[in-house]
Amino acid sequence: MRLRLAVVKEGKALVYIPDPEHASSLDYFEPAWLPVFYNPVMELNRDISVVALQAYVEALAPRRPIIAVEPFTATGVRAIRYSLEVEGLEAVYAGDIDGRAVALARANVSLNGLENIVRVYHADARELVFRLKREGVPVLFVDIDPFGTPAPFIESAIAVIGRSGLLAVTATDLAVLEGSKPGTAKRRYGVRVERVPPSKEVAVRALLAFIALRAAMHDKAVKPLLSYYADHYIRVFLIVERGAVKADRMLEHDLGCLRYDKNLGIAELEKGNCKGSEALYPIWVSRIFDEEFTASCLKLLEGRFRYLGTYKRSLRLLKTVEEESRIEGWQIHQRIDSIASKARTNMPPIHLILEELKRRGFKASRTLFTPVGVRTNADARLLVGLVKELSKPSRSHAGPV
Ligand SMILES: C[S@@+](CC[C@H](N)C(=O)[O-])C[C@H]1O[C@@H](n2cnc3c(N)ncnc32)[C@H](O)[C@@H]1O
Question: For residue 92, what is the domain's CATH number?
């Protein structure tokens, strides 16, 4: 089949994409119908990835320049953007299982004059990374960005990443990870989840636990740097460290379960082997953001990455993440609408709750996972009391005394 093409500019890259007409009906555009996948909505994902990779290369990479792998490349746009926009890359190994994608990605590599930096392989993602491992290529960054579940590809990615390397993972099977399809979640991720109010963060924590267990198999440990939810997917960035002792420590300290209190509408994380059939398990119970890393991403975005197409949205997202990352502790965010509904009361404005928590000496912020959520180091039961208090009409509006 001959492909009709269009050209788009994204970041600093110029790329041929299949003519969007291939995937359009009268009022609908479905990227998955394109002969080679290109989703304009994922520009945010690519923009934030460019920033995060630069932050990693500048502050955390054990050496420079680094070698990156992008084994689900489709049009090649992501690999090309990494090469053009991130300083400190030696090579990007890109791949795709679909021959048409490989042909288009190679044409795009030439269009951007990157033949010396980006190599495109026609291969299954696992085959590509294991080949690089066998050949001793010192890979420090792998970006897993497939359709749907990343589960089958995590282990090979972990296996190839060198000491203090970076792993980025997109999961678009959000409904599964957030507990709407518990059977599929059990099968794909070995996790027991059901849908509870902070569901998007549960999805992130279930995915992190899955990745952590795969890392432990290889005597490796992971540490999340940045995690977020947007549109229809979740995305996580993690440092991968080597060492059986580190892996043991991670299993002991960072994994546990989540309990949801149906009477109060609150969710709580618990370390270790949790008893009880109602617990969601295994769940990553430690931090999901790194304060310094998120601060450097924000700084980079506001500096040299102001040109990004999704600048304003990325800024809103990273500002919230940075604020959330400053809240210490082991808490998941709480949904104020759920707490209020269980307490049979109106939902007080979020800004009032935040002000009151801070006035009482707690840390508190909004959360990127939902506009009706709060992240705080205050005890969840104290928050329930506060929601009840603040939802009462104030005396001045209560009518004659
Ligand atoms: C969601 S698209 C990737 C989008 C791309 N990373 C971007 O940012 O535009 C997924 C791609 O993975 C390819 N793919 C699916 N299964 C694969 C596998 N097992 N190994 C390698 N590529 C695969 C598909 O052909 C498709 O091009």
Answer: 3.40.50.150
